[in-house]
Design a protein that fits this description.
mainly alpha, elongated, binds fe (ii) ion, Hemerythrin-like_sf, Hemerythrin
């Protein structure tokens, strides 16, 4: 399983769509690393993903706060859940834990599914809500 950017994932806020393309690319890199079975590549791509996920979620949360988004708390909880999952994954690599192919594939599927669902449902709702206000978006 992998993930690839498609315009179906666009939510209609340019700054967020651009970041989502990069996030999706980093998850795809992790997917390729899992396919390759190369543990060092998996560890590297997880680190690469963590850095960008934190940066992107922060930017998205700032937009929600500045625009008084009504579901900020629930949305932020979803981001926190994802970061905790990636943190655990990083820790397992850092501590040298053996990881079977099945286990790596299950983690990859979880990250891919979460990302696709989160962008196409939760992030789309941000854009729909904020665009319905009609005023300029506070970034
Ligand atoms: Fe989000």
């Amino acid at each position: 399983m992998t993930v690839q950017w498609s315009d179906d994932l666009a939510i209609g806020i340019g700054i967020i769509d651009d970041q989502h393309k990069k996030l999706v690319e980093r998850i795809a890199s992790f997917s390729r690393a899992v396919e390759s079975g190369d543990r060092n590549r998996m560890e590297d791509t997880v680190n690469y993903l963590i850095g960008y996920a934190i940066q992107h979620f922060g930017a998205e949360e700032l937009i929600m706060i500045r625009n008084c988004y009504d579901q900020f708390r629930e949305h932020r909880d979803e981001h926190s859940w994802f970061i905790k999952e990636v943190f655990d994954l990083h820790r397992r690599f850092a501590e040298g834990e053996e990881m079977t192919r099945e286990s790596a594939e299950a983690l990859r599927d979880m990250l891919v599914n979460w990302t696709l669902d989160h962008i196409s449902v939760k992030d789309k709702r941000i854009a729909e809500t904020l665009n319905s206000f009609g005023g300029p978006l506070r970034k």
